[in-house]
Amino acid sequence: MKILAISDTVIDGLYSGTVVNRFPDVDLLISCGDLPYYYPEYIVSMLNTPLYFVRGNHDLASQSWQAQQPGPLGGFDLHKKITQYHGLILAGVEGSIRYREGPFMYTQNEMWMNILEMIPKLMYNRLRLGRFVDIFVTHTPPYSIHDEIDLPHQGIKAFLWFDRVFSPRYHLHGHIHLYNHNSQRETMLFNTRIINCYGFQEIIIPT
Asked: What is the tally of structural domains in the chain?
């Protein structure tokens, strides 16, 4: 299965008709947040793929023309949810660390609560399917991996624990902007491949 993951910045080459030629065989679009909603909506309409998303801490400022629109039209909101797509188990948590007043921001303790709410379904997956989750989608990276020392870009401790305990095959995130080719985009944590999807990343998952 081929996944196109996007986050944080609009790429001109994706927001044009050439996206069809560039990604002709994408099966799934995943948005890690901080994008204007019209952007994943456009890509989905061009590629004719399903969309799964979480919101970023700037999502309120990046609404489309519908001011009260809760997310990209036609997309599936992964926040605190666990679902399946063609045999892949997906889970997600929105937002960043709380560094000011505003939506889609949480304290470290609140992020722990977001994770704990998903544990019963994760355990059910383990019993029924033999694994907890395949793809974990967040806006913010786990604590100490791909994050930065300033509070707004601090990683989430609960996500680090999640990856260690539930061992998703992939953890896709955004939030941390990458400005040069030397910036670290991928890290392996035990069995989990953690990928910063700033801009976009194309990911091929054996099924």
From this structure: 1
